[in-house]
């Protein structure tokens, strides 16, 4: 997971949110409790232009409640 998150962070930095989201989804499938992954996910959604999803993440994923999104099914 650490390597997936690191690669996602690099991809966010490079302006590649779609690739970052793919890495973060893999990381979340391994452990949905990691707050770092959720924060990176919020950054990736914001960069992708989906600010509504980026704002929902801290209220759901970081709070430990179930986070529903088609990508996480």
Low-confidence stretches: none
Order of helices and strands: HHHH
Radius of gyration: 11 Å
What is the number of strand segments? 0
Shape: flat
Distance linking N and C termini = 19 Å
**Strand count, sense and closure of the main sheet?**
none
Structural class, by secondary structure, is: mainly alpha
Number of helices: 4
- Mean pLDDT metric: 84
Residues in helix, %: 55-70%
> Which percent range describes the beta-strand content?
under 5%
Give the helices and strands, then pairings.
Elements: H1 2-13, H2 17-30, H3 35-48, H4 51-60
Structural features, described:
The chain has 73 residues and is an all-alpha fold. Helix content is 68%, strand content 0%. It has helices at residues 2-13, 17-30, 35-48, 51-60. α1 runs parallel beside α3 (35-48). The chain is flat. The mean pLDDT is 84.
Which descriptors apply to this entry?
73 residues; single chain; mainly alpha; 4 helices
